[in-house]
Amino acid sequence: MPNTEKNIKSFPPTLKNRNLREISLLFEKRHYFLERLLPLTRLTTLHRRIKDESWNMLPLQKREKKKKMAKTKKKKKWEHEEETVLALKS
Question: Where is this region: Disordered (predicted)?
């Protein structure tokens, strides 16, 4: 491997300090594979897109029901917090 130094320099800083054996093991185990292909931003947008598609595939009634449940959950949490604040004040 004549260009090992050059290859190591092209790695991100987290991998620069590791020896060649560790790096090759990482590549073999594919730990680094996804990070290399899909940066975190693309992964999150991909995840968001999948989530949106699965949401759109739900029937309209179920979507409305889930929205309503989320609102009531927030409302209940808010009411509970108000009650605890009032209890602490008195």
Answer: 63-90
